[in-house]
Write a structure and sequence with these properties.
four-stranded antiparallel sheet; six-stranded mixed sheet; 10 strands; Rossmann fold; alpha/beta; 10% strand; ABC transporter transmembrane region fold
């Protein structure tokens, strides 16, 4: 019961003020139901005693019949009231939790969203929130009444025979211990099982999305299915542990209940036979004993569900307790859109990604960031967009620390084109209007022309109304990138962050996007992570990032003349660009 009270307090903490009032009212109604149910069965004993007298004591019998009728009516009134409140609270939980979790996910740092968290978060938003809503809507009534009614009946049994009362009390303690062991077994295995299900769900989604690669490399012909097969094996093992452990715990609880009931029945009959217990009291105690089996059996059946729901509440609380980025009470006002980085240091877990970054990116200029894979280029853009906070050092926009500006202000000032483009299910026009819901058709046409999206729109049968599919699955990589660039252009933010914006485009569209970037840089602060030469050469400033540090900086000409890392990078790209397939290879050549 203590465990249940703790989880109810957790649930109260998650509800809004009206929800808390409703839950408290519901708990009082349920306790009242349990008391009335227990009294109803206790009233049977004096009723039988009145009926057993010779002659029958009609007045006393009618009194107890009236008392029983009043208890039944009051019980059903409380039942109807508590049931309606339970469904109302359950509905509030479903809608409120989805809103709270969604709002909290929107402010968590991007670094929190690892690939292995996709499945668990999806399960939290689906099954776990339904589990939490099921607690007040269905389970709570059986649990509270199933505990309160036996307590009332055990207390009343002392009035009939104190020896049976003591036996009931000792048996109740034994059953409570067995129930606690059952819930502990389930709690120990439930978290691991939920995690394994979430990981398997993430793997299944990846398996479905990456069918071309899997088939190309013959993964589907392998019996183990790689990491997905291992995840499914772990899920099956954790399910077995949960099921088998729960079955043993349930058998222990049912064994304790049967032992107690058998002992009480045997003692009651024995006391009646030796004359120390009246026959009417014996009948009343036997009725109480048999009636107590029902709520106790329900407790055993529901203990696993209650523990699972309680674990779901704990997981929801743990997610909502994940620290969000701190926000200022009064956001600062920037004076312009210069970007300045001072001693920026950042790492994931124990791995340092950026170490001591100093740079100034003046307003209205184009800065290019180049360097090998893993150097920290994309992370630097995320820090500027305040998807993450620095571990040390500061990033300033318009002279203000971005932490003093706040995430909302930084989001309004920046538009991003990510390396991995994600388009939402819907039309191309709807995906663009995410940046500006009030954009006109003329606005869409303007940004489409700059990003060379207009050529693609013209050849699609439904034009702007073409649906892109889940994650943009109906479009090619280059087409998705152009939609993403047009979306960033439509936002018309003073700072634009491009992460490998031209990586998926052909040479013609690469040049067009490079022109679009140059046009933006006339009156915006543009930061580009790029490997393509057309973007790099147009930059007002190039930062060479290597092993988390800026090793070179300057214009294209200055860095070529320096003859360092950038010059080597440039010449390698030039040589690679000279490679081509030729159709005049001599016969027999390989």
């Amino acid at each position: 019961m203590g465990t249940m009270i703790r989880y109810l307090l957790d649930l109260l903490d998650l509800l809004d003020p009206p929800g808390r009032r409703h839950l408290r009212t519901m708990l009082m109604l349920l306790v009242g139901q349990g008391v009335l149910q227990g009294l109803g069965f206790l009233f049977v004993a004096p009723l039988i005693a009145a009926l057993a007298e010779t002659p029958v004591d009609r007045d006393r019998a009618l009194l107890w019949i009236g008392a029983l009728a009043a208890v039944v009516v009051a019980h059903h009134v409380l039942l109807a009231w508590s049931t309606s409140l339970g469904y109302r609270i359950g509905t509030d939980v479903l809608t409120g939790f989805h809103s709270r979790i969604g709002n909290h996910l929107a402010v968590l740092p991007i670094g929190w969203f690892r690939t292995d968290r996709t499945g668990p978060v999806a399960r939290l938003l689906s099954k776990n929130t339904v589990d939490v809503a099921d607690l007040p809507a269905h389970l709570l009534r059986y649990v509270v009444v199933g505990v309160v009614a036996p307590i009332v009946m055990i207390a009343g049994s002392y009035l009939l025979d104190w020896r049976i009362g003591l036996t009931f009390t000792a048996g109740a303690l034994l059953c409570a211990l067995a129930l606690r062991l059952l819930m502990a077994v389930i709690a120990r295995n439930d978290d691991g099982h939920e995690h394994d299900i979430g990981v398997s769900a993430s793997g299944i989604v990846e398996f479905a999305r990456q069918q071309p690669i899997l088939r190309a490399y013959g993964v589907l012909d392998r019996p183990d299915l790689g990491t997905l097969g291992a995840a499914l094996d772990r899920q099956r093992e954790s399910q077995s542990r949960l099921t088998i452990g729960g079955a043993w715990g349930l058998m222990l609880f049912y064994g304790a209940v049967q032992l107690v009931m058998t002992a009480v029945i045997a003692l009651t009959v024995a006391f009646a036979m030796d004359g120390s217990l009246a026959v009417a009291s014996m009948v009343g105690l036997l009725i109480i004993t048999l009636r107590m089996l029902d709520p106790l059996a329900q407790l055993g059946d529901l203990a696993g569900h209650v523990q699972v729901n309680a674990d779901a509440i704990r997981r929801v609380r743990a997610l909502l307790a994940e620290p969000r980025l701190p926000e200022p009470a009064q956001p600062a006002e920037p004076s312009g859109y210069d970007i300045e980085l001072r001693g920026v240091r950042f790492g994931y877990d124990d791995r340092i990604v950026l170490d001591g970054i100093d740079a100034r990116l003046p307003q209205g200029t184009l800065a290019a960031i180049v360097g090998p894979s893993g150097a920290g280029k994309s992370t630097l853009l995320k820090l500027i967009g305040r998807f993450l906070d620095t571990d040390d050092g500061t990033i300033r926009i318009g002279g203000c620390d971005i932490r003093d500006l706040g995430s909302a202000a930084v989001a309004r000032m920046t538009a991003q084109v990510f390396q991995e483009v994600y388009l939402f299910e819907g039309t191309i026009a709807e995906n663009l209007r995410m940046a500006d819901p009030d954009a006109t058709d003329a606005d869409l046409a303007r940004v489409a022309r700059i990003a060379r999206l207009d050529e693609m729109i013209e050849r699609l049968p439904d034009g702007w109304n073409t649906r892109v599919g889940e994650a943009g699955s109906t479009l090619s990589g280059g087409e998705k990138q152009r939609v993403s660039i047009a979306r960033a252009l439509l936002k018309d933010a003073p700072i634009v962050l491009f992460d490998e914006a031209t990586a998926a485009l052909d040479a013609v569209n690469e040049a067009a996007v490079a022109d679009a970037i140059a046009e933006l840089a006339r009156d915006r602060t543009v930061v580009v992570v790029a490997h393509r030469m057309s973007t790099v050469t147009a930059a007002d400033q190039i930062l060479v990032l290597d092993d988390g540090r800026i090793t070179e900086r300057g214009t294209h000409g200055e860095l070529l003349a320096h003859g360092g890392t950038y010059a080597r990078f440039w010449h390698e790209r030039r040589r690679a660009r000279g490679w081509q397939l030729r159709g005049d290879v001599p016969a027999g050549a390989s």
